[in-house]
């Protein structure tokens, strides 16, 4: 599975491509940081991020896009721009029928370091080790994008299976409710 | 001036078109609320909002798009979706070279009611009166989109003039600093 990991942002947006193999083996295929100047108009900045995302999607044709989920509580001043950047990337993926999934920062940290409260240095170190890279990915946004992609390689299939199982359980519950309703109707008639 | 006003959102996104005439006269040309089901995938919801925004921009060819600025503090659970919806609309406008401006909720309220702390009912009442509408626009998102468009019709030209004046002042200051630097170089030589 080929996963495009995204650490969304307007000033710096990390994008990475990771391929998963057997078991937990993962390989980094590409990583980049899209930057837009903070004095540029918002629409222009979003266009740059969107254009780059489209380019990545068209060139690399990933099987899924994994984006870090932003929380409004963190860094209020930049949270809105971060959400908007994530939004235009999700749009670009949706326009190409590539499924988009979100992972929270602690899910990403837990996946790569074993602890949801790991710091940036630990995440970078583990990403470097997991991918067998010669040097640490820089800046932090690049390492984060790789971490998100790794996280999805490992959690994604399980998430899909769980969603599938939940759908089946809901369908079974609905059938059960209908049978009960029918039985009641029958006893009334 | 033709202004497309947007009250961004994923569940309900208000879009309105208002034309300004002489002085403070404004006319509503169209208003609609784009809805997307909350159980739909985020990328799909963003695509719907984006497609509708593109359609409005292409059909109505507004001179500007005015979007209500979202704050992370308000309604944390929906703020991210709201920002993402605003982001894809700003992107659609940028792709068509239509300038995008943002107004805060209190700027919008102050523009139409005279008070930045007016409630929804007051905003709706004033929008209905200002636009000379026979019935109140419904739902609240439609009234809000109209209010944002009106706000931009009235504040927009002033904002552009102020931005222009600030640019000129900055250029003058830069020239002044350069002259001083040159004079110092001259006195040293």
From TrEMBL, chains A, B:
Binds 2 Mg(2+) ion per subunit. GO terms for biological process: DNA recombination; DNA repair. The RuvA-RuvB-RuvC complex processes Holliday junction (HJ) DNA during genetic recombination and DNA repair. Endonuclease that resolves HJ intermediates. Cleaves cruciform DNA by making single-stranded nicks across the HJ at symmetrical positions within the homologous arms, yielding a 5'-phosphate and a 3'-hydroxyl group; requires a central core of homology in the junction. The consensus cleavage sequence is 5'-(A/T)TT(C/G)-3'. Cleavage occurs on the 3'-side of the TT dinucleotide at the point of strand exchange. GO terms for cellular component: cytoplasm; Holliday junction resolvase complex. Its EC number is 3.1.21.10. CDD domains: RuvC. Residues 179-189 have a biased composition (Basic and acidic residues). Its cofactor is Mg(2+). It is found in: Cytoplasm. Keywords: Cytoplasm, DNA damage, DNA recombination, DNA repair, DNA-binding, Endonuclease, Hydrolase, Magnesium, Metal-binding, Nuclease. It comes from Gordonia paraffinivorans. Homodimer which binds Holliday junction (HJ) DNA. The HJ becomes 2-fold symmetrical on binding to RuvC with unstacked arms; it has a different conformation from HJ DNA in complex with RuvA. In the full resolvosome a probable DNA-RuvA(4)-RuvB(12)-RuvC(2) complex forms which resolves the HJ. The gene is ruvC. This is Crossover junction endodeoxyribonuclease RuvC. It catalyses: Endonucleolytic cleavage at a junction such as a reciprocal single-stranded crossover between two homologous DNA duplexes (Holliday junction). The active site is at 7, 68, 141. Mg(2+) 2 binds at residue 68. Its main location: cytoplasm. InterPro entries: RNaseH-like_sf, RNaseH_sf, X-over_junc_endoDNase_Mg_BS, X-over_junc_endoDNase_RuvC. Belongs to the RuvC family.
């Amino acid at each position: 599975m080929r996963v495009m990991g995204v650490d969304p942002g307007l000033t710096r947006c990390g994008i990475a491509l990771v391929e998963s193999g057997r078991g937990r083996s993962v390989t980094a295929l590409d990583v980049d940081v899209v930057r837009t100047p903070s004095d540029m108009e918002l629409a222009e900045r979003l266009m740059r991020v969107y254009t780059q995302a489209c380019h990545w999607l068209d060139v690399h044709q990933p099987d899924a896009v994994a984006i870090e989920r932003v929380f409004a509580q963190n860094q209020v001043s930049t949270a809105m721009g971060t959400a908007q950047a994530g939004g235009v990337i999700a749009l670009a993926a949706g326009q190409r029928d590539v499924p988009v999934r979100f992972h929270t920062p602690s899910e990403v940290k837990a996946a790569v370091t074993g602890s949801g409260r790991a710091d940036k240095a630990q995440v970078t170190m583990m990403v470097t080790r997991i991918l067998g890279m010669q040097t640490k990915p820089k800046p932090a946004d690049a390492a984060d994008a790789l971490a998100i992609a790794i996280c999805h390689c490992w959690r994604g299939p399980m998430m899909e299976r769980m969603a599938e199982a939940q759908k089946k359980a809901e369908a079974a519950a609905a059938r059960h409710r209908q049978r009960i309703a029918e039985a009641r109707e029958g006893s009334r008639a």
